[in-house]
Amino acid sequence: MRYIKMLGLAAVAAAALMAFVGASTASATVLCKTTTNGAPTCPANQAYPAGTAVHAVSETKPVLTSFINVECAEATVQGTTDIEGEKGKPVTGKVSELKFIEPCNCAVKVLKNGSLSISWLSATNNGSLSSSGAEVTIECNTIFGKVHCIYETSSTPLGTLTGGEEATMDIESANIPRLKTDSLCAEKANWDVKFKVTTPKPLFVAEET
Asked: If 206 and its partner were Cys, which of 42, 48, 68, 124 is the partner (CB 3.0–4.6 Å)?
């Protein structure tokens, strides 16, 4: 009888575990128009649909730290979402514009805009940001002549999208890998900048079940 009881308890525990796993994988990251009293879930019919335009402008000077600190006056980013939300997947979107606005202390050009990915951070209205396929080149005049560096993201963690009536994107020491260019270029460049999301407003990152 003891063994039967043990088997019964094991079966109940296994069923509970499967139910938990099933519930956790059924969720999806969504960009949401509102929250219910600050809850981390998105109310019905309040998720921004696929094709939503997202635009942000920098609140701080964008700084790319390589062999020197490369600074520009401002930066902007713009794109549209590919999906509203899919089970077990982040919200992704192609970047249509990534711009570093002069004056800059080095020549900065964006060769490829790449794409962004937003994954919901559990129990919050925030999301983690990552980038793939963005390619930026810098060219600086030095005592050694012109130094040319190219950096490209590849599922690179950038920072946090903090949801709110006016959301922000905090890019904090994002390590952007270097492509094979001048040996003086740092192997990875740190990118630091804080963006204010101007569209859409408000914007929350949430879980949809």
From this structure: 42
**Which 8-state DSSP code applies to residue 165?**
T
- On the CB side of 147, CA atoms within 13 Å amount to 16
Is 21 a member of any domain?
A: no
Q: Which domain holds residue 119?
A: 28-208
Residue 182 lies in a domain: yes
pLDDT digits (tens, 9 = 90+) for 116-129: 999 999 999 999 99
Residue 142 counted as domain residue: yes
Determine the Cα angle at 38 with ends 36 and 39, to 5°: 70
Distance CA 204, CA 161 (A): 9
Q: Is the pLDDT of residue 19 over 60?
A: no
Is position 17 within any domain?
Answer: no
Domain count across the chain: 1
Q: Is 37 helix (H, G, I), strand (E, B) or coil?
A: coil
Q: Which amino acid is at 136?
A: V
Element (H, E) at 173: strand 168-177
Pair of tokens at residue 180: 């094979």
Per-residue pLDDT band for 13 (boundaries 50, 70, 90) equals very low
Asked if residues 78 and 53 have their Cβ atoms less than 8 Å apart, the reply is: yes
